[in-house]
Amino acid sequence: MTKYRKTLAVVAAAAMGVTGLAACGGGGGGSADGANTLHYMTFRPTEHWDPQRMYIGRDLADSSRLFYRSLVSFPVSEDPTTSVTPVPDLATDTGKASNKGKTWKFTLKEGVKWEDGKPVTCEDVKYGISRTFDLQTGGSGALTGGPNYILGYIDAPDFKGPYKADAKGQAQFDKAVVCDGATITFNFKKGWNDLPLAIASLRSFDPYRKDKDQGDKSNYQIFSNGPYKLDGAWVKEKGGTFVKNTEWDASTDTVRKQLVDKIVFTEGITNELVAQRLIASNGDDAYAVTDRSIPPSIYAQVTGDAAKRATLVDSPFTGYLLPNFKRMTNPQVRKALMLSTDRDGWAAALGGEKSAKPSSSIVNPAVAGYAPNPAFADMGNYDMAKKTLKAAGKMGYPIIFTFSGGSPTSQKAAAALKQGWEKGGFKVSLNELTDTYYTEVQKPNLKTDVVWGGWGADWPSISTVIPPLFDSRLNISKTSNGQDYGNFVDPKANKMFDAANAAPLEEQPAMWAAVDKYLGEQTAYIPLDVTQFYMMHGSKVTNYMQTAASNMYPDLGAIGVE
């Protein structure tokens, strides 16, 4: 299966093929259990429901619609601009900035409650933010995963999260994040003008109740302040059921609705079986949606009524390769690898235009400032690859390719890359991983030469693509390479990141294009595809839509059943 880290890009309005948003999702019949129930079928297991550890586009979107509220959120809208324009959620407005974006203030609404009836407080928000520091700063080690943006802005270098905090570190954090009644103030060490976008896109700033925190044991525990709550326990690789949260007050929430009585998530169903069941649309499957694209082997079955229920959209994600700089140290070898990469064969093996489009950058074309990277103009030139590898004295160079597998499609796509690389003079071994993929590729000493990755901008800016992936100061530690699976450490690149981030907004696109070009010249990455989402839903599903706010997955803030 294909996993995607991260989330949001402004997706152009084209090719959405979805229905309009009605006032409600229907009521009436419902599924076989007699309730007004929406079913969510998937193969991919949820890695985290802990808000501060969450960093998968689907899970970020689903949780924000169902059970986690943020200071600001994205509205439910098919309009590509409106859908990624933050609106107040827990806060009374979208924040007040001063001091050139270094100081931000938000005031919480009255009447917002947790599922046990207790109010959501400023201290809850502050505590949730504090947990992020345990992820990356040598804290207790209880938490893993999650984005690390906060660490670049909050000036608390000695703070190691709430489980291992000492007086010095805690004082630093308390100065940076201040609660005064219902008002929370952020005092950043540098301006963060797009903070509302970061808050709406990620769960890092979500509140968390201290008395509910059990560290790593909280990974699949969900304590809701949204319209739905978990009924019983979430079972890893199986799923769980969400029911209406009676403590949720619609008058405090302009974003969400309780459109159905229940939402049943079922994990572990193969992509092929998900598609076939949705095509047939029998029983509970008529009331179902999925985050899984229709596999190429099923395309021929999408006819008649099923074809009317299939949607094809550009996703916010790109697929790419990362050479391992710890092992592939010769720049000419990396260049030869790039030149012999068959991105057209890769896209075709994935299923062609309904699955993937060949790309020319790690940045999705929908992100403002995108430009094709000229460093990759000669990809697929096997003669040039051979000459480059021969000049480096490395003909027959052995490489191990680690990829996220588990399906015939992923295996076929990996085989297409292997064939191209061998045409270019490499000797290739394939290392297929499934559920443990990200855990393994984040190990800095993994014995591999090139790995696959998938990414989408966290919010509509190239600054949420390139630095999170290639800034070694954010990623590289003794125990983890973060999102930098290729162990790319380049002081010149880091300086370029800082300069682009500090520049006026109107100057940034050209600067980021220059940064991207430099990364291409170092072969820090090799572009593969812009991922397409080709999805199916059941015949009894209403208001079906995939929005930029939901990372082009089914938007559970809109969808109901007959």
Furnish the topology, listing elements before pairings:
Elements: E1 5-6, E2 37-41, H1 57-66, E3 72-73, E4 87-88, E5 96-98, E6 103-107, H2 122-131, H3 133-136, H4 149-153, H5 167-176, E7 177-180, E8 183-187, H6 195-201, E9 228-235, E10 239-244, E11 262-266, H7 271-280, E12 288-290, H8 304-308, E13 310-323, H9 331-339, H10 343-350, E14 356-358, H11 382-391, E15 397-404, H12 408-423, E16 426-433, H13 437-441, E17 450-456, H14 466-470, H15 472-475, H16 491-502, H17 508-521, E18 526-536, E19 541-542, E20 560-561
Parallel strand pairs: 1-17, 2-11, 2-12, 15-16, 15-17
Antiparallel strand pairs: 3-4, 5-6, 6-8, 7-8, 9-10, 10-11, 13-17, 13-18, 14-18, 19-20
Helix pairs in contact: 9-11, 10-12, 16-17
Mean of residue pLDDT?
Answer: 91
| Overall tally of structural domains | 2
CATH superfamily of the largest domain: Periplasmic binding protein-like II
Q: Helix amount, in percent?
A: 25-40%
**Strand count, sense and closure of the main sheet?**
7 strands, mixed
The shape, in one word, is globular
Number of strands: 20
Could you tell me the strand content as a percent range? Answer: 15-25%
Distance between the termini: 31 Å
Class from secondary-structure proportions: alpha/beta
**Radius of gyration, whole Å:** 23 Å
* Uncertain spans: 1-28
For this structure, what is the CATH class of the largest domain? Alpha Beta
CATH fold name of the largest domain, please?
Answer: D-Maltodextrin-Binding Protein, domain 2
CATH architect. name of the largest domain:
3-Layer(aba) Sandwich
Put simply, the count of helices is: 17
